[in-house]
Each structure stands twice: as structure tokens, then as C-alpha cells.
Specification:
314 residues, Rossmann fold, 2 domains, globular
Length: 314
């Protein structure tokens, strides 16, 4: 069960590499254990319920919208938007807020970015709580955007491929990227909604209207689709299998990996492989859940992990 609703006690705007300005907020206990919420996508932005995974009497809860997402500006901007830039932004936020080291909490792409940050700055990470592991390997991209999940959800898949002509469906990422970065505003938004709704329809074991509606919101859909396509066209700005190859850098960092058994967006194979390469991580498999952090079993596991982390980092 999530903690009660909570409001930020302060917010910040941080100018980073042009043209980006980041939105940051803090809630909970100002002198508590710092925890950084790292949202997914890339491009999804934070939601108000993201504040509620943490005991506000124990944690200094920090949320930020990554470049081009949520309340950060410019919206859906691709210029100077790379994995390395986001890692640098996290360091800039840490320095701005006077944090020595912190817990990282991220799901899906948020798990990717948290892992890359931890491998870059291991001395700044007290521990990590990661959900729905995404290692940004080509086989993971192909599974969800070319062939794989399409065989589980052929009905939703038809809606996803509908905006793309038959002759371009052999490389759907490229076909979508061309339209999402094109000048035709109607085509751009139609593709953004189709891309994002495909993700929303497959995020939970049973499709949930509230989740699909969030993904279908034009503001969320445009940044999510554009930024995801931009990253996936560029191999997420990572070397092949970079995260597993550099797993030794995590050796002193305690972690919890929470993975839905029936995650169709980020299949469990990646969580399993990460757990084998990161001995300090505990793998918690949720047998009645898919990908979304809104599913009951995932919520329970995440809240439990935030409580347990307090004792692991004492």
C-alpha cells in the first residue's frame, strides 16, 4: 500500500546544457535519507503518486523530470538529449541539493539510467531499488517494437502498426522516428499516441483504462514517443551490453530488483541476468504482475523494499 498523498515542500528549476531546464521537487523529511526517483520512458515524466513509495518521516524524496519530459522544458526536445547528459544532470542535481550520496529508485528506463549512473559514480550511490529491468539491448528493443510482444497482443499490435505503411514495417523504429521528427504535425501526434498507447495497453497484466489514458494523454505521448524513438535509434547511447559488461562496478552497492513474472515490455530475462551479475542485489519476482508500478504486487514489493533499504544502508 502506498503512503498517503504528499505535497512537495520545495521545487527547483535547474538550467543545464542548452536548451534544457529541469524541474525538480522535494518532499518528505528535509534531513532524511536522500532518495532520487528516476522515471521511465525515456520521456515519461514524474506523476504525483511517485512520491508515495517512501516513508515521508524517513526519506528526503527527490523527483525530477528528465530532459524534454514532464515539467522540464523545452517539451519533447531531442537536442543534447543523451544518456550521458542525463547522468550529468543527476550529478548536477545532487550538487545543487547538497547531497553527499543517495538511494536510487527507478523502473524500466529508470532502472537503465540508475544503473548507468551507479556505474559512473558508484561512490555516490547508497543503494538501488529497481523495477522492470531494461538493459537497452537490441534484442529487448526488437522484442517490443518489432516481433515478440506482437505475438502476445496481436490485437493491440494492429493499432500500433496502423500509422505505418506496409512497406516500412520491417523497421518500425525507423519508420516511427521519421514521422515523430517530421514536419507534419497531424502525423506526428497520431504516431505519438499510437506508440504510447501500445506501451500503455501492455504495461499491466490486465489492460487498465487509467494507465492507457495516461499514456494516451497528448503531452505524455509526444515526449514519450519522440524521446524513446530518439534513444532507440541511437542504441540508447550505450555500448553493446554495456550494463552487464560493467556490472563489477556495482559490487559494493546493495540493491533490490523487483520484476513482474509476466512483464511483456521488459521480459524477466534481463532482470535475471542482472541479478546473476550483481551479487549485492536481491531479486524479488512478482508472480501475478506485469510491468507497471501501479500493479498491486509491484506496489507492495516496492514499498517493502524502501523500508528494508533503510536497514541495509545503516
Amino acid at each position: 500500500m502506498l503512503y498517503p498523498e504528499i505535497k512537495p515542500y520545495t521545487s527547483h528549476e535547474l538550467a543545464v546544457e542548452s536548451p534544457h531546464r529541469l524541474y525538480i521537487e522535494e518532499c518528505g523529511k528535509p534531513d532524511g535519507v536522500p532518495v532520487l526517483f528516476v522515471h521511465g520512458g525515456p520521456g515519461a515524466g514524474c506523476e504525483s503518486y511517485h512520491r508515495r513509495f517512501f516513508d515521508p518521516e524517513k526519506y528526503r524524496i527527490i523527483l525530477f523530470d528528465q530532459r524534454g519530459a514532464g515539467k522540464s522544458t523545452p517539451h519533447a526536445e531531442l537536442k543534447n538529449n543523451t544518456t550521458q547528459a542525463l547522468v550529468a544532470d543527476m550529478e548536477a542535481i545532487r550538487e545543487l541539493l547538497g547531497v553527499e550520496s543517495w538511494v536510487l529508485f527507478g523502473g524500466s528506463w529508470g532502472s537503465t539510467l540508475s544503473l548507468v549512473y551507479a556505474q559512473t559514480h558508484p561512490d555516490r550511490v547508497l543503494g538501488m531499488i529497481l523495477r522492470g529491468i531494461f538493459l537497452c539491448r537490441q534484442k529487448e528493443i526488437d522484442w517490443f517494437y518489432q516481433h515478440g510482444a506482437s505475438r502476445i497482443y496481436p490485437d493491440f499490435w494492429q493499432e500500433f502498426i496502423h500509422p505505418i505503411p506496409q512497406k516500412e514495417r520491417g523497421d518500425l523504429i525507423s519508420a516511427y522516428y521519421k514521422r515523430l521528427t517530421g514536419k507534419d504535425e497531424i502525423a506526428r501526434m497520431a504516431c505519438a499516441k499510437a506508440w504510447s498507447i501500445w506501451e500503455g495497453c501492455t504495461a499491466t497484466m490486465q489492460p487498465r483504462k487509467s494507465v492507457v489514458d495516461h499514456f494516451g494523454d497528448p503531452h505524455t505521448a509526444l515526449s514519450l514517443a519522440r524521446i524513446e524513438a530518439h534513444y532507440f535509434m541511437n542504441q540508447s547511447f550505450l555500448k553493446s551490453d554495456q550494463i552487464l559488461h560493467e556490472a563489477d562496478r556495482l559490487k559494493d552497492i546493495p540493491g533490490t530488483i523487483i520484476q513482474g513474472r509476466y512483464d511483456m515490455i521488459c521480459p524477466m530475462e534481463s532482470a535475471w541476468e542482472l541479478s546473476q551479475a550483481w551479487p549485492m542485489a536481491e531479486l524479488d519476482i512478482i508472480n501475478n504482475a506485469g510491468h507497471s508500478a501501479t500493479e498491486a504486487g509491484i506496489i507492495e514489493a516496492l514499498v517493502t523494499a524502501t523500508r528494508k533499504m533503510l536497514t541495509r544502508i545503516e
